[in-house]
Structure formats: structure tokens, C-alpha cells
Automatic annotation (TrEMBL):
InterPro entries: Asp_de-COase-like_dom_sf (IPR009010), BFD-like_2Fe2S-bd_dom (IPR007419), BFD-like_2Fe2S-bd_dom_sf (IPR041854), CT_Nitrate-R-NapA-like (IPR041957), MoPterin_dinucl-bd_dom (IPR006657), Mopterin_OxRdtase (IPR006656), Mopterin_OxRdtase_4Fe-4S_dom (IPR006963), MopterinOxRdtase_cofactor_BS (IPR027467). GO terms for molecular function: 4 iron, 4 sulfur cluster binding; metal ion binding; molybdopterin cofactor binding; oxidoreductase activity. This is Nitrate reductase. GO terms for biological process: cellular respiration; nitrate assimilation. Residues 2-58 form the 4Fe-4S Mo/W bis-MGD-type domain.
Length: 883
């Protein structure tokens, strides 16, 4: 009998319910949980491919000290001893934890308790600083608490959904699909996308505002001024429930129309169209994500948006409100346990002496952090200058994801003591660890996560863990015990959850938003059976699932606050660095690729780091599509593939954040991002970086497929990606060489005695070499003086094809399939592995809608994440046919 387990997706903050099934043979399959209120059975491409990312390849399997196997006892004794020594010698602020919104709430709770209550420092910060801290700060300024007022249902009930700084189609695909379905059922629903790029999300937009980078504060100031003088203003709500309206309006009114046009880069008629749409639509939700948060004006952006909802009283009622889309699966849980350096547990305030004493009393702890600790960027500065002597990094990869990433790497290399808890052995960060601790991965661990709409769901283990891997909470609790602290005798995550729930209700009496007291005495069996629920969930009472519809904010006077914001200068370019670099995500990869990089299907969508460049900029820079481009800022440099596209605005380039030293030669984009932060939240400005670009010329360009993982020695450029049956690799070399055959032997691990088929043409520079053994392709290398045009996906398919027939082998040398074997082209639908050429063929045969293409090819019929791309291909083909 196959066993089914209900759990939660470990990727984005949508928090989809997943049913994992382990068959009798031990194979795992996943499907969406039809009963989970976040997704009602849907999953996106990443969720659907979860089963492909849980193998043990690359896992850290036992504790290591200085790169050598150690046992848990020795490793944790060393950690506890070193932390205690540093604290004794240099004080509590000489140690720090850098944790993650991908920890489970229980892990996070224990880490925060240890640092703030027992070590007595605020030095625990998290990658949520890079992700949600501007939203947290904006919420706290406006509401007096870090509260997301609405629910996902509001997005379906709304008549106007504004998506600003959010590429929802790729980053929160299941919410995107819920909105797309609602709009299909009720076409009067309007969608506005505000983003400098024309992203896939624009596929469902009625209006796309291609805003100038960081023009959002000005835009929403303009909107506030417009609303305030019109019929949508809700004077009753403003008077009864808010403060600060006139100051905010006075500040907003300082911008003239000409200045608005200049700051936002949007023509006046478009501004008016947007303002009128907002004004005339009562049921409006404004969703925002990293285009808002990751900015030097991130907190002001958040408050500029909230101001517009307060002035119209459109908050906390069905179908309306500001809506911060959380990134990570448990960024919200981390905020609930107070895992940021400037927060306290259970949404209490570190600034409040009363709250501090309350938490200390509850924990019966020897001390309590008296002041905020160092925020991420400052924390790594303190590591660099030696103030921090011991750092514990858990479930995050800062050498890739922190701004000024090369400096962060240098800092942790110089750190006297670095502990890393991860599931992979070789990450850009883990390779510098003095103590490396093997954590449990998704499918192995148990706990809870909170999604963007405050819904708490269980993650449940259903796989046997590697024997020596341990839960993150256990690692922290065990270290605390070894440091001599009482209060960490947890037997299971259920114990921790119960304590967390009890703290949320402790002396609360409605004074704090976060209250899950209903679960304060939960036992292991109930915890096992826990079904998804939304907070607040106070003991003994049903609570409303929206906030602030009737005021009830959490400032002492229970009123919400308008915040007077200013629209400062946003252009960071200079003569030396004339372009604006914007960074973010692609559909099928997750952050630093430690998990999605394992899936061939997910790696096939976009297999290389790239820079989106506007065609006009490309012409001026002498850059053609598919050539290599070098981007450089004052802080660092990358070399990536050029993707010339009109989706990009002039003067801007976009590079994904995912690639790192494990997958590419030089593509860690955060090496270019300066450590510039928002003054209120401390969140880095990752989306507005001054850079310059130039074409990177190489003597030879290459593409290869290989069964063994390639070791691309001497290549000035390389980008590896997993493929069915092996790997694919893009290459470039500064010099031609005579001995390509020897290079292949070393790079692809070709056994002695296997001779290549192919040729090397000195005149043209073309090289084609293929190696076969026992009727199978081992590796093939194609080189030429210009970027290689080869049928890449067809070549990849040859890794798993039969090559007993010698004639077929010559097709590989040619780099092209014979007429009988079509090339699928690059993957569009990763669920059914349908390539672009298959979709084009379907369109040419008369399928002119996404549904018709789906019937013909299956593409887009499972998770639906690629439907916008399919529509783009159909439109492209039809436009071409019409020319
Ligand atoms: N596929 C995938 N999904 C993910 C993740 C992933 O790694 N991969 N990560 C998850 C996490 S942790 C997060 S935080 C979320 C992030 O989700 P999103 O915030 O949606 O993703 P990003 O691509 O970082 O940025 C969103 C958009 O902001 C735009 N932008 C840049 N500057 C500005 C600006 O000044 N104003 C406006 N209005 N827009 C701007 C960018 O062009 C980009 O399209 O995604 C989550 N989901
Ligand atoms: N330029 C630029 N930089 C950015 C962003 C951007 O848009 N642009 N976005 C920022 C944002 S929003 C975010 S959220 C960050 C994300 O950046 P990171 O948090 O650095 O990225 P991840 O790859 O998610 O890192 C998670 C790590 O935890 C490990 N891991 C997985 N499961 C477990 C587990 O159960 N336990 C433990 N201990 N480890 C585990 C993984 O192998 C991986 O090494 O990047 C930020 N950096
Ligand atoms: S939208 Fe996709 S990545 Fe996000 S939780 Fe759902 S299945 Fe996972
Ligand atoms: Mo994030």
C-alpha cells in the first residue's frame, strides 16, 4: 500500500498543501492537496517537481569539523564551548546567528529564544531581512503591529488587483492562477501590473505601468493626493481610526504633475487612468513584493501604498486591502517568533521594557536582549571587522544572496568560527564552515509554517532521513543545553509549538495581534493531526480572519497611522556606470539552486544565467542576442548570456539572482549589489544598482552534453545544468587549443580506450567531438568561433537514446537531428517537457489558443505556470504569419 502524507510545499509563501505518496518500491510522487485552502489542489512547476529534488546526491551526511567527519557529540561540544568562550571573553554581542525564512517555526523559535533570552544578545538576524523587512517595518509604522490584514480570498473578490513589484506569474504562481481564474469567470475584474519590466505577469494585466526604478513612492503619493480631493475619501474612517492624515497629504501634495511624470517615468494620461481606476473601484487590493521591499525607499513604498488604503477605508473588508506577498515558505512564522534582530517573540516589541520583561518571565530566562541586534548587512560588516567571533548560519546561503557578496565571502572566510547547518555539503557558504552540521530536509522534518495569509500548516516527514541528519531545532536546543541553559528540554516539535502558542497568549488580552492560544496545550497526537488554520486563533473564541475593517490597530491609542513620505532621488547611474541593474527570479529556480538545480525538468526552462537588455541598448553596446556580456559595478563583476528583449525598459538590465559558483563560472549577481539599505528596515536595495555592460569576447564558444558531471577546466565562461541522463554545459574559451580530445577526457571523465568520433577544423575553428560506449553517448562537445547554434534539447535527449546504429552517431557530430527526429527546442512546459518547437508546430497546425495547444501537446495543462509563455508564442507566430 502506498502511503500518503499531507504536508506543505517548502518553496514560496503561497504555502500550498501537498500530498506526498511513497510507493511500495520507495518512489515518491507529489500532488496538490485538494483540501488545502491555499491551493485547493493546484501546484506550480516547482511544487510539482518536488520529488525530483529529494535525493541524497550532494547531501551533507554527517557532522564535519574542519572538513573531517566528526560525531555529533564532538561537533556540538565544540560549538557550545566556542560560543561560551567568546561570550565570556568578548560579551554576548560577539556571537551571532544568521538564520532563514525557510526554517520551520519550531526551529526559529528555539534559535531566537537561545540568542535573545539566554545568550542575551539581539544578534539573530535572518535572510528575511533581505526579503520582508520593509513590509514588517511599514506594517509596524502604520498598524502598530506586523499584520497582513487580508486573505487570499480577497484577491478573488476584488474588482481591481494592483500588483506592484511582483512577478506573481513566476514567483507566486498558484495565487496568480487563482486571480487568473477569477478574472476569467468575471472579466470585469481589472488587473494593473506596476513593474519596470514587462513580465509574464502582464499576460493578465489590463494596464501595465512600466515604472521607473523606485518610482513607487512618487506614484502612490500622487495617488493619495488625487484620492484626497475626490469622492473616494472616507472621512469617517480617517477620523475614527487614524492619525496623521493631514501631514501625509501635505507631504504628498508637494509633488507637481510634472514631477510625478518625471519620478515615475509614466506619461500623465497613464497616471490619470490608474488614479481614476483606483478611485472608482471600491474593492481594490494592492499586492506588493520585492520590487517594493528591496529598495532604499522600501519602507516608504509600503507606507505610501497603505496610506491609499487608509484614506479610502479600504482595508480589512472582503475584496480590499494592502497585501504584502511573503517570499519564503515561513518568513511569516519567523516574524511570529521574533526572529529578526529588532523584534521580540510573539509579535512583542523589543523597544518595550514591559514586553521584554514579559518574555523573560515566560521563558524564565537569565537575561533578555536589551537592544536590537545587528541587521544582516551590519552583521556581516561586524564579522568582517572582527567584532563577531563566532557565527552560526542556518538554512541560508549568504555568499550568494547577500549584497556585496564577495565582501561577505571574505568576511566569513576570515571569521574565527563559522558553523553552517545545511542539507548540502558544497554550497558557496558551506564550503567555508569550520563546523558543518547535517540538517533534515523537506520530507524528513516535522513542524509548522505560516503562509502569506497568516495560515499555519504542518510540514510532515514522510521519508527516512540520512541516519546522522538532525532537525535544526534539535541542533540549537542541544547546543543550548551544552552551554548550561535550562528551558530547552524539548522532546519534539509539538512541545515547541505548544510553548510558542502559549507565549502568544501570555498576558495578551487582545493587546497583540498574534494570538494562537487555542493551541497552547496541544499534544503530540493533536499536533500530528493539525489541519491548516489562520491566526488569530485565541483560546476559547473564534476570531475574525481580517484585520482593521473597524480600526482596532495596535498602536497604544488603537489608531492606524498615515506616514508622511518623501519621494527622493532614485537614479543611481553615473557616467561610469550608466545602466540600472535589476535582479530577481525566474519561474523554475529557487534562490541559490541547491534544490531546483537537481531537477532536469526545472533546469530545462532557463539553463543559463542571463541579462535582459533592451534592443536599443544592445545595439549601442555592440551586444547581440546570445553573445556573452560582462556586467560590472563598483563592487564586482559577472559574465552572463545576453537576452535582447523589448520586455526590458531602456537603460535597465535584469539578471536573475539564482546562479552561483556551483553552477556557473562568474554569475553571483550579488557580487555587484552594494550594501546599501533602507534606513528604516535595513533591507538591501537589490533592484536598483548602477552598472556598466560590455560584450565579453571569447575565442571559442561551446556547448556540451555529458553523462558525468563536467569539470570545465580553463573555460572562461561555463554554466552547468542538470539534464535527463546527465548534464549540459555552456562554455567559452579565451584560447583555441590543439588537444580538445584530452580536454574532453578530463572534463567529461571519458574512460581510456574510448575514441572520439568527429572532427576539428582549424580553418573555421569548429570542433565536434562525440564519445560513445556500449551503444550509448557519453559526451559530445561542439565548439565554434561564434555562439554555438545547435539543437540543444535534441542533443540532450541523445544522452538517453540508443546509439547502436552508427549512422545516428553522425547526426550528433553535426549537432542537428535528422528529419525524422524533431528538435523539441528549449523547454516551455516543464511538467510535460514540451519545448518551444512543439508549441510552434501546434500553432502552425491551427491551434490558436492556449487551450488548443494544450489539447494537442499537453503543454500548460498541469500546473499552468507556462500558460503566459504559450500565449506569447502563439501571439508571436500569428504576428509573424500576418506580416
Ligand atoms: N520561481 C521562484 N519563485 C519564488 C522564489 C524563487 O526563488 N523562485 N522566491 C520566493 C521569495 S523568497 C520571494 S521574496 C518572492 C519574490 O517575488 P517577487 O517580488 O515577485 O520577485 P522578484 O523577481 O524578486 O521581483 C519582482 C519584480 O519587481 C520588479 N521591480 C524591480 N524594481 C522595481 C521597482 O522599483 N518598482 C516596482 N514596482 N517593481 C520593481 C522586478 O522587475 C520584478 O519583476 O518569490 C518567491 N517565489
Ligand atoms: N540580488 C538579489 N539578491 C537577493 C534577492 C534578490 O531579489 N536579488 N532576494 C533576496 C531574498 S528575498 C531572499 S529570501 C534570499 C534567499 O537567499 P538564501 O536564503 O541564501 O537562498 P536559498 O538558496 O534558499 O538558501 C537556503 C539554504 O538552506 C539550505 N536548506 C534547505 N533546507 C534546509 C533545512 O531544512 N535546514 C537547513 N539548515 N538548511 C536547509 C539550502 O541547501 C540552501 O543552502 O536572497 C536574497 N538575495
Ligand atoms: S505556488 Fe508553487 S512554489 Fe509556491 S507554495 Fe505553491 S507549489 Fe510551492
Ligand atoms: Mo525572499
Amino acid at each position: 500500500m502506498a502511503a500518503e502524507t499531507k504536508t506543505t510545499c517548502p518553496y514560496c509563501g503561497v504555502g500550498c498543501g501537498v500530498i506526498a505518496t511513497v510507493s511500495d518500491r520507495g518512489t515518491v510522487s507529489v500532488k496538490g492537496d485538494p483540501e488545502h485552502p491555499a491551493n485547493f489542489g493546484r501546484l506550480c512547476s516547482k511544487g510539482s517537481a518536488l520529488a525530483e529534488t529529494i535525493d541524497l546526491d550532494g547531501r551533507v551526511l554527517f557532522p564535519e569539523i574542519a572538513g573531517r567527519r566528526a560525531d555529533w557529540n564532538d561537533a556540538l561540544d565544540l560549538v557550545a564551548r566556542t560560543l561560551s568562550q567568546a561570550i565570556a571573553e568578548y560579551g554576548p554581542d560577539s556571537v551571532a546567528f544568521y538564520v532563514s525564512g525557510q526554517l520551520l517555526t519550531e526551529d526559529y523559535y528555539v534559535a531566537n529564544k537561545l540568542m535573545k533570552g539566554f545568550i542575551g544578545s539581539g544578534n539573530i538576524d535572518t535572510n528575511s531581512r533581505l526579503c520582508m523587512s520593509s513590509s514588517v517595518a511599514g506594517h509596524r509604522r502604520a498598524f502598530g503591529s506586523d499584520t497582513v490584514p487580508g486573505t487570499y480570498e480577497d484577491l478573488e473578490l476584488a474588482d481591481l488587483v494592483i500588483l506592484t513589484g511582483s512577478n506573481l506569474a513566476w514567483c507566486h504562481p498558484v495565487i496568480y492562477q487563482r486571480i487568473a481564474s477569477a478574472k476569467a469567470a468575471r472579466p470585469s475584474m481589472k488587473i494593473v501590473v506596476i513593474d519596470p519590466r514587462r513580465t509574464m505577469t502582464c499576460d493578465i494585466a489590463d494596464l501595465h505601468l512600466a515604472i521607473r526604478p523606485d518610482g513607487d513612492v512618487a506614484l502612490f503619493m500622487g495617488l493619495l493626493a488625487h484620492l484626497s480631493s475626490g469622492p473616494a475619501v472616507d472621512h469617517d474612517y480617517i477620523t475614527a481610526h487614524t492619525q496623521g492624515f493631514s501631514e501625509a497629504l501635505a507631504a504628498a501634495s508637494t509633488l507637481s504633475l510634472a514631477e510625478l511624470v518625471e519620478r515615475t517615468g509614466l506619461p500623465a494620461p497613464q497616471l490619470h487612468q490608474f488614479f481614476r481606476l483606483f478611485e472608482t473601484t471600491e474593492n481594490t487590493v494592492t499586492c506588493y513584493s520585492q520590487g517594493v521591499n528591496q529598495s532604499a525607499s522600501g519602507t516608504d513604498k509600503v507606507n505610501a501604498i497603505i496610506n491609499c488604503h487608509l484614506v479610502t477605508g479600504r482595508i480589512g473588508r472582503p475584496g480590499m486591502g494592502p497585501f504584502s506577498l511573503t517570499g519564503q515558505p515561513n518568513a511569516m512564522g519567523g516574524r511570529e517568533v521574533g526572529g529578526l534582530a529588532n523584534m521580540l517573540a510573539a509579535h512583542m516589541a523589543l523597544e518595550s521594557a514591559e514586553d521584554r520583561l514579559r518574555v523573560q518571565r515566560f521563558w524564565a530566562s537569565p537575561t533578555i536582549a536589551a537592544k536590537p541586534g545587528l541587521k544582516a548587512v551590519d552583521m556581516f560588516r561586524a564579522v568582517a571587522d572582527g567584532r563577531i567571533k563566532a557565527l552560526w548560519v542556518m538554512a541560508t546561503n549568504p555568499v550568494v544572496s547577500m549584497p556585496d557578496a564577495d565582501a561577505v565571502e571574505a568576511a566569513i572566510k576570515a571569521c574565527p568560527f563559522l558553523v553552517v547547518s545545511d542539507i548540502l555539503r558544497d554550497t558557496d557558504t558551506a564550503r567555508h564552515a569550520h563546523v558543518l552540521l547535517p540538517s533534515l530536509g523537506w520530507g524528513e522534518k516535522d513542524g509548522t509554517v505560516t503562509n502569506s495569509e497568516r495560515r499555519i500548516s504542518r510540514q510532515r516527514g514522510f521519508l527516512a532521513a540520512p541516519p546522522e541528519a538532525r532537525a535544526d531545532w534539535w541542533q540549537m536546543a542541544e547546543t543550548a543545553r551544552r552551554m548550561g541553559f535550562a528551558g530547552f528540554d524539548y522532546r519534539s516539535p509539538a512541545d515547541i509549538f505548544a510553548e510558542h502558542a502559549a507565549l502568544s497568549a501570555f498576558e495578551n488580552h487582545g493587546s497583540r495581534d498574534f494570538d494562537i492560544g487555542a493551541h497552547a496545550s496541544i499534544g503530540p497526537a493533536q499536533y500530528d493531526a493539525l489541519t491548516p488554520f489562520q491566526w488569530p486563533a485565541p483560546a476559547g473564541g473564534r476570531a475574525a480572519n481580517r484585520f482593521f475593517g473597524n480600526g482596532g490597530f495596535y498602536h497604544p491609542d488603537r489608531k492606524g497611522r498615515f506616514i508622511a513620505v518623501q519621494a527622493g532621488a532614485t537614479d543611481r547611474t553615473s557616467q561610469q556606470y550608466p545602466l540600472t541593474l535589476n535582479t530577481g527570479r525566474i519561474r523554475d529556480h529557487w534562490h541559490t539552486m541547491t534544490r531546483t538545480g537537481k531537477s532536469a525538468r526545472l533546469s530545462g526552462h532557463i539553463a543559463e544565467p542571463f541579462a535582459e537588455i533592451h534592443p536599443q541598448d544592445a545595439v549601442e553596446l555592440g551586444i547581440r542576442d546570445a553573445c556573452l556580456v560582462e556586467l560590472e559595478s563598483a563592487h564586482g563583476k559577472v559574465v552572463v548570456r545576453a537576452l535582447v528583449t523589448r520586455r526590458q525598459a531602456r537603460g535597465n538590465v535584469f539578471v536573475p539572482m539564482h546562479w552561483n559558483d556551483q553552477f556557473a563560472a562568474q554569475a553571483r549577481i550579488d557580487a555587484l549589489v552594494p550594501p546599501l539599505t533602507d534606513p528604516v528596515s535595513g533591507q538591501p536595495a537589490s533592484k536598483n544598482v548602477a552598472v556598466r555592460a560590455r560584450r565579453a569576447r571569447s575565442a571559442l564558444y561551446g556547448f556540451a552534453v555529458s553523462v558525468a558531471k563536467p569539470v570545465p577546466n580553463d573555460a572562461v565562461y561555463w554554466a552547468l545544468a542538470k539534464a535527463d541522463g546527465g548534464w549540459r554545459v555552456e562554455l567559452a574559451f579565451d584560447e583555441a587549443r590543439e588537444d580538445w580530445s584530452n580536454w574532453c577526457r578530463a572534463a567529461f571523465g571519458i574512460p581510456a580506450g574510448v575514441e572520439p568520433l568527429g572532427y576539428m577544423d582549424r580553418h573555421s575553428g569548429d570542433v565536434r567531438l562525440a564519445y560513445f560506449q556500449d551503444g550509448k553517448l557519453l559526451a559530445a562537445l561542439l565548439l565554434s568561433r561564434e555562439p554555438v547554434a545547435a539543437a540543444r534539447n535534441w542533443l540532450i535527449a541523445q544522452l538517453t537514446a540508443d546509439h547502436s546504429d552508427l549512422r545516428k552517431r553522425f547526426a550528433i557530430v553535426a549537432g542537428r537531428p535528422g528529419a525524422d527526429q524533431p528538435d523539441p527546442g528549449s523547454t516551455v512546459c516543464s511538467c510535460f517537457s514540451v519545448g518551444v518547437n512543439g508549441i510552434v508546430a501546434a500553432v502552425r497546425s491551427g491551434c490558436h489558443s492556449v487551450e488548443a495547444v494544450g489539447r494537442e501537446t499537453n503543454a500548460g495543462t498541469n500546473c499552468g505556470s507556462c500558460r503566459a509563455e504559450i500565449r506569447g508564442i502563439i501571439d508571436g507566430c500569428l504576428a509573424q504569419a500576418a506580416e
